[in-house]
Amino acid sequence: MSANETQTASDGVARLRMQDPEVRTFAHLLVNVSLVSVVNFTVWFAVTFWVYLETGSVFAAGVISGIFLVAMVSTGVWFGSLVDHHRKKTVMQASAAVSLAFYAAALGLYVTTPAAVWTEPANVRLWALVLLVMAGVMAGNVRGIAMTTVVTALFDESRRDRANGLVGTTSGISHLVTSVISGLLVASSGMLGVLIIAVVVLAAAVVHLHRLQVPESLAEAAAAGEPKKVDLRGTLRLVSQIPGMWALIGFTLLNNLLGGGLMALADPYGLSLMSVQAWGFAWGGISVFMILGGLVVAKRGVGRNPLRTLLVVNLTMWAATFVLPIQHSVVLLVTGFAVYLFVMPFAEAAEQTVLQKVVPYERQGRVVGFAHSVEMVAAPLTAFLISPLTEFVFQPFMTDGAGANLIGGWFGTGPARGIALVLMLLAVLGLGLTAAALASRQYRTMSRHYLDGAADEDQRAAGGEPVADAAVGQPEPALVGASA
Q: Where are the transmembrane segments (predicted)?
């Protein structure tokens, strides 16, 4: 039995055991990537807060979000190509080094610029700093794409969902830490403390990764021998060849459109119920449930059909969204978001597990990068659209408009109830979208495609011939040694 074959406990369930060399390597990489992710997200949130606080310009803060949106869309496939065509350790090391260089340059610019300059929204130095910071954040996205392919390379299909659960756990920790420290750092020292921490952590990550020995499966490029080009046309062709893949991307896109509205309104609705300090601590506490959810996935997995798990979990998330604003209640708000965040890692792990199974390993970086670009463009767009719609239509509607007269007696009236109504409408749309996906032919086709591939792997493990020749039946890189 090779080291990359399934390790099982006495109950026959696949486990991740720290005594296994591939699990130890994964743990090192996960900690390294997670620390850098915390820094990148902290820098991203901090620069947005800081620019608004310094300039007082909503437009300037919006432009930063716009820059981030365009950069995300335009770099996904390119970053994925880098992941496919270079060794995983090399590309992750290069990503950290590039981020470090940009943050160091931003720190130098910050400490050599008079403080009064930062209050001018049109000042060239201000936008030079923003662009340097954003370039450092964007360079870190390579590592997120690489981690998806690392899971594929290190683990067989029976353990990938559990590994993805650990990735979800670290995402929850990142979210919790970022939400707490970004505002504190900006309040205490502007961008100075943020950039110093970024430089120190990135330097430590570069040194740690340099000293880490990785298995042979990570020491070779996934697409070794292929021309080193982005090949967007080939990526689109591959996506079209995988049954149900466009439907999965489209579902996630629409789901993120609705989720963007939820995230845009979460803070205003929470602040209508409690002080900003209380809401900050409440949100930090609620984020713990995302960590717990990830740990449950790491222990239990996401089931035999992750695609079904993805959709069922989305039903749960949107049901929680519907309930949390139904009355103006702190208990409902906290409970609803706790349920939402607890099941979120199940959805993320399920989607990653499907992609790792149905996309050939040598193309995963490009396909994952493309999917992330398409999917992540949705949430910021909705956030821009839903906020003015809520403020200028639904809040008056529930304050002294027809809505207040029609349902205000039991639903409540006022601006906060306008936000609550929008949240409930988003939830209804989300429930409808997910129910339609569960009933669709594309869902059945992709589920069958995934399960046929699982059957092929089971038969290979038993020494037999595969029952179907599908894209999911790609050979996995063997874990046969270690290299520096």
A: 25-52, 58-79, 91-112, 124-142, 163-185, 191-209, 245-266, 278-298, 305-324, 330-347, 367-386, 419-439
